[in-house]
User: Which sequence fits this backbone?
C-alpha cells in the first residue's frame, strides 16, 4: 500500500497516510478535526484548507471555490484525495480552540458519590484471627462486600505490602482497588457531557467534591457529519463507519481525560469513576452499538436503562477498574443528555407544569404536565451554533456575540474585542429580534426593500444593502446577515417552537400554565430572553419564569458523579417520561409551517 | 536459547523445549502430566520414565533407581535435565487414564438454574411502538432486565437478524446472549469438582436438567507436587510457579470441557454456566490469586464468599458470556469442596448432630453440633489414593480393590480381573482390618513375627514373609503389604480420627450423639464401613447411620448448577460454619499420637 507523508501547518504535525484518503480523514488521524457540517458531502464548503505544496485531485467538483481561490491553493478537505506528499495549512478558524461554555448554574448536590475512598486499618491475621482477607475487609468496612474480579489476584499481595493500612476504593459495596493509606493518592472522577458538536469533561476529587480541572474539545466525529443523522448515515453506509465514529469519539474523550489529568497533575489511573450523558446517537456510537435502527422510522434505540460498565473495557484510558455510568435514554433521539438536563433542573421535584428546552445541534424539549413528562427531539440543526449561516461562526474570538440597540443604531460586541469575523448564534437571535422590532424585517422573515423603509434612523438604513441581488444587513465590514440566514434561523426556531406547541397541545396546556421555562444548552446563558421570545424560540411567559441552566447536561453528569442517588432519580424520571415522535404526528407539519412566521409582537 | 526436540512414547508427541528443563516439565508442556507426588523432589521415585535414545544428566542422585535400572534407561523424570534431543517412554502407569468415581448418590434438586434459556417472540417495532430494544425485551420477559455488557454491541443486530424470534439466554434477570429461536441451539452448563488429584466435570442441558456427558482427568498440577502444601510451596518458591499452576489446572479444565463437548456433540460455546467446587488452594490457584498466606500460619485464604465471574476472563474455553460460579470458602484449607459436600448432604436441613468426612488427598471434616458447624481439614495425604504405599496404585485396571475373608484365607479382587499390579486405598483398608482381626497385625500396627503366630490358617501364615529384614504380607505375586505401608495408613487414619475426636470434644458430643455420618470422597462408596470402623477411620456408630454420598463435592457443584437457590444455601452454610485450625489446638498432637494406635476391637 502506497503511503504519503502529509504535514499540517501551523502545528507542523506530520504523518504517513495511505494514498487515496481525503484530507479530512488524514487530519482526523493527525488529531486535527476539520469541521465538515455537510458530512463530507462537498457541499457546504466549510472544510476549506490551503495546500501549500504538492498536487491533489478532487473526488468531485468543488463548486464552493472560485478559480482564484483554487489557484491560491484552497481546496475542500473533504473532497480532496491525497496522491503525493502534501503540506496543508489549516485555517485558524478550524484550528483554534473553541470557547465552550463549561460553567453551569452551580452544583447543588450533597456529596455522596457511588465511587469513593475509605481509609482503614485492618487487624493483621493471627492465630486467633484467621479470617479470609475478604472477611476481614467486609467486617472492617461494615458492608456486604463484593470484589472487582480483576482486583482479586493482587488483593492479598497489596494488603500485606501496605501493611494492612489501606485506602479502599469502593463503588458502593464493591471494592474496586486497594491503595496504600500512607501514600494516599487521590480518588478522582470525571463527568462528561458528550455533545454532537462539543464535548466537555470535568474532573472532581471524589473525597472532597472539589472540581480539579475542566477541559473541552470538538467532537472528533465532526469530520463524519455535523448532526446525528449524518453520523448514523456514515455508520450505516460504510463498513468501517461505526468503528471510525467510535474511535473518533474515544479519541476525543481520551484527549480530554489526558488534559484533565495534566491540569490536575495526577495520573489518569487516579480516575475511578466516569459519568457520561449524551443524546441517544452519541451514547450508542461511543459504546459501539449497532445504531442502524436509530436511522430509520421508528427510530428505535438499543437501550433505555442506565448502563454501568467497565470504563477501560469501553476504551477509556483511566484506571483499569474504573466504572463508566452512561445515562438512561427516553426514546428516539431523546437520550441521556435530556435525562441529565431534567436531573439538573430537578424535574422529579416539580409540582406545577414546566418546560425544558435544550438548545443544541439536536434540540430537545421536555414538558412536565403536572403528572408525566412529554419528551421530544427536533432537528434544529447547527444554525444556533453559527453553522449553515453565511457569516456564521462559533462563539470564538472575533465572533459578534451580542447586538444591542444603542444611539439609534445596532451596536455589535465582539468576543475578545477583535475585528469582527462573523457572528455566532446569540448575535443571530439579537440581530433578528432587533430588526423585527424596527420593521426592517417582516414577520414573514422577509427583509424590506430599501425603498419600503420609512422613519428609520439613517445609520440603520445604510446597513441594508444588496448582495447578489438579494437583501442583506451589514453588521460589520465583511459580516453580512443575508436573507438566506434569516431563513435558516426561521427553520431552526420553527422546529423548536412547533415542538413546544405540539407538546403543550397534547398536554392540554397553554404557555400561561408553565411555572418554569428552563433554557439549557452550551450557549443558553448568553441568549437574551426577550429576543428569544421575540423570534419565537421561547414561549411568551413572564420573564421571571425563564431560568437559564446553562450546560445542564454537563451539570447532570456532575450530579450523577457526586451523588449515587442520582441513579434512582434518573430511573424515576425515565419512568415518568414518554417519548413523543413529532415527525409521526399529523399536526406537526402544520405547526411547523405555522411557526416559520415569526410571532406578531 | 538452545532448544532440543523431545519425543514422548507411546503417544509420539514431539515438541521443542529449552535446554535445561526437566523431563517432568517437558512432559507437562506436551500435555502429559507425570505424577511426582513428592513435588519433584527426587525422593518418591514415582516419576520414573525410560530414556530410549539420547544422553541425560541428573540434578541429583537418583537413589530410587538401581544400577541395572539406570543401565536399562530408567530415569527419574523430575531429576533429569534435557541436554540433547531425547526419545522418552512414559510407562503405562502414568499414561493410562484413571478410573475416577463420577457417579454420586443422584441428584435431588428441583430444576431452577440461574442460567437458563427462554424462547420468546418480540413484537417488531412500529410507528405505534418505538420502545428501545431493551425495553421491548424487559417487557416481554417480564423481568427487571440487565444486559451483559459484551452483548450490547450486537444486541440490535441479532434481534433483527432472527426476526424477533429469539432464544434468550438469561442469568437470573441478566441477558447473557440472544440466539435464534428457530435454530434453537442447546444451552448447557458444566459442574466441576476440582480436586487436588482428580478433576471431574459433568455437562448438563440447562433446559431439561439432563446430564449430557461426564469426563474426568488427573489434575495437571500433579507434576508440581501431590498435596496442597507442595503446590503452594511451588507457587511461593518459583517466580513463575503460580502462573504454571494456574496454566496447568486451566489446561485440565479445558481438556475436560473439550471432551464433554465432543461426547455431547455440541460446540463448547453452548456452555453458558460453570459451577466449580474445590478446596481453598485449588480454587485460589485456579483464579491466579496470591496464595502465599495460605502456605504459612495462620493459613489465611484470600476470599470467603462465593464468586461470580466471567468464565472466559477466568480462562475457560466456553461461551464468551458464560458465568463461572466458584463456591464460598470456610477458612484455612476448608474450601468450596467442603461447602459443596455440605450442600449435597443437606447440612442446612439437619436437626440432630451429624458428621461429614470427605476423604481425599486433603481430608475435610464437618461436624454439625445441632446449632453450628465445626469444620477442619487434615493433611491425610495421598495414602488412601494408593500413593506413598510401596505397592500402592490408583484404582485403575490391575489394582486389587477388595480383600475379603474367604475359605480361611484372604481373597483379592482385582479391577478388570487383570493380573494384580498393586493395591488401591480400599484394599489397603480391607487388608489392614482383616489382619487386625486375625491378630497377625497388632493394634499398634506391628506385624507379628512368624514365630509369634498361633492358630492361624496355614495359607495366611505363608503369606507373612520377610522383606529386607522387615515383615511384609504377600497379597499376590509382587504385591506386598509392607510394615511401612501400615505405618503410612496409621498416620493418614490418625489425622482424620484425631480431627473427628477433637471436633466432638469441642462440641461436647460423643459418637453416640451422631445421627448421621456422611462419608464423601472419590472412593468413599467402595469402602466397607466395618473395615473403616475397624481401623478407626470412621467412628463407632451403628452401621445404619453411615451414609455414603460418593463424590459429594461434585454433587454439590451440580446442585448449584441446576438450582439457583443453592447460592443462598451455601451462604447460610458458611455463616453457620466455624473453621477450626487443628494444628493450632494444644490437644491435637495428643489426640493424633493416641489415634495412631488402631482402636481395640
Assistant:
Amino acid at each position: 500500500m502506497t503511503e504519503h507523508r502529509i504535514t499540517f501547518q501551523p502545528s507542523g504535525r506530520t504523518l504517513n497516510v495511505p494514498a487515496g484518503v481525503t484530507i479530512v480523514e488524514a487530519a482526523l488521524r493527525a488529531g486535527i478535526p476539520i469541521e465538515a457540517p455537510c458530512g463530507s458531502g462537498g457541499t457546504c464548503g466549510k472544510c476549506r484548507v490551503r495546500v501549500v505544496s504538492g498536487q491533489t485531485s478532487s473526488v468531485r467538483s468543488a463548486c464552493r471555490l472560485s478559480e482564484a481561490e483554487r489557484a491560491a491553493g484552497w481546496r475542500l478537505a473533504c473532497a480532496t484525495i491525497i496522491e503525493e506528499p502534501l503540506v496543508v495549512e489549516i485555517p485558524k478558524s478550524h484550528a483554534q480552540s473553541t470557547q465552550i461554555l463549561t460553567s453551569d448554574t452551580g452544583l447543588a448536590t450533597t456529596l455522596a458519590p457511588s465511587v469513593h475512598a475509605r481509609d482503614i486499618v485492618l487487624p493483621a491475621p493471627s492465630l486467633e484471627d484467621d479470617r479470609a482477607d475478604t472477611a476481614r475487609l467486609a467486617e472492617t468496612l461494615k458492608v456486604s462486600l463484593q470484589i472487582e474480579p480483576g482486583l482479586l489476584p493482587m488483593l492479598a499481595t497489596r494488603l500485606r505490602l501496605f501493611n494492612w493500612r489501606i485506602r479502599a476504593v469502593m463503588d458502593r459495596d464493591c471494592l474496586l482497588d486497594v491503595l496504600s493509606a500512607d501514600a494516599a493518592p487521590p480518588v478522582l472522577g470525571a463527568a462528561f457531557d458528550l455533545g454532537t458538536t462539543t464535548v466537555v469533561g470535568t474532573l472532581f476529587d471524589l473525597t472532597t467534591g472539589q472540581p480539579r480541572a475542566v477541559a473541552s474539545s470538538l467532537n472528533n466525529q465532526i469530520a463524519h457529519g455535523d448532526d446525528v443523522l449524518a453520523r448514523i448515515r456514515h455508520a450505516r453506509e460504510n463498513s468501517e463507519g461505526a468503528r471510525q465514529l467510535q474511535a473518533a469519539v474515544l479519541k476525543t474523550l481520551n484527549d480530554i481525560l489526558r488534559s484533565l489529568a495534566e491540569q490536575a497533575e495526577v495520573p489518569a489511573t487516579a480516575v475511578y469513576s466516569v459519568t457520561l450523558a449524551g443524546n441517544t446517537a452519541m451514547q450508542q456510537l461511543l459504546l459501539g452499538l449497532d445504531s442502524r435502527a436509530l436511522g430509520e422510522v421508528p427510530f428505535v434505540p438499543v437501550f433505555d436503562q442506565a448502563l454501568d460498565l467497565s470504563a477501560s473495557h469501553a476504551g477509556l484510558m483511566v484506571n483499569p477498574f474504573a466504572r463508566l455510568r452512561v445515562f438512561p435514554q427516553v426514546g428516539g433521539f431523546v437520550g441521556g443528555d435530556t435525562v441529565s438536563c431534567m436531573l439538573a433542573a430537578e424535574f422529579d421535584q416539580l409540582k406545577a407544569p414546566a418546560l425544558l428546552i435544550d438548545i443544541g445541534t439536536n434540540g430537545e424539549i421536555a414538558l412536565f404536565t403536572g403528572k408525566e413528562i412529554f419528551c421530544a427531539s427536533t432537528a434544529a440543526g447547527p444554525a444556533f451554533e453559527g453553522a449553515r449561516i453565511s457569516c456564521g461562526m462559533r462563539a470564538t474570538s472575533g465572533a459578534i456575540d451580542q447586538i444591542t440597540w444603542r444611539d439609534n443604531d445596532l451596536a455589535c460586541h465582539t468576543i475578545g474585542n477583535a475585528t469582527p469575523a462573523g457572528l455566532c448564534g446569540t448575535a443571530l437571535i439579537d440581530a433578528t429580534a432587533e430588526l423585527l422590532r424596527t420593521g426592517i424585517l417582516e414577520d414573514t422573515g422577509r427583509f424590506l426593500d430599501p425603498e419600503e423603509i420609512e422613519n428609520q434612523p439613517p445609520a440603520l438604513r445604510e446597513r441594508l444593502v444588496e448582495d447578489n441581488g438579494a437583501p442583506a444587513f451589514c453588521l460589520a465590514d465583511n459580516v453580512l446577515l443575508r436573507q438566506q440566514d434569516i431563513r435558516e434561523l426561521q427553520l431552526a426556531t420553527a422546529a423548536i417552537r412547533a415542538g413546544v406547541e405540539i407538546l403543550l397541545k397534547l398536554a392540554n396546556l397553554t404557555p400561561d400554565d408553565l411555572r418554569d421555562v428552563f433554557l439549557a444548552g452550551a450557549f443558553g446563558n448568553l441568549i437574551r430572553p426577550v429576543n428569544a421570545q421575540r423570534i419565537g424560540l421561547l414561549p411568551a411567559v413572564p420573564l421571571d419564569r425563564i431560568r437559564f441552566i446553562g450546560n445542564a447536561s454537563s451539570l447532570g453528569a456532575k450530579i450523577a458523579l457526586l451523588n449515587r442517588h442520582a441513579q434512582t432519580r434518573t430511573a424515576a424520571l425515565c419512568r415518568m417520561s414518554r417519548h413523543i415522535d413529532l415527525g409521526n404526528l399529523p399536526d406537526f407539519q402544520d405547526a411547523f409551517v405555522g411557526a416559520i412566521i415569526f410571532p406578531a409582537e
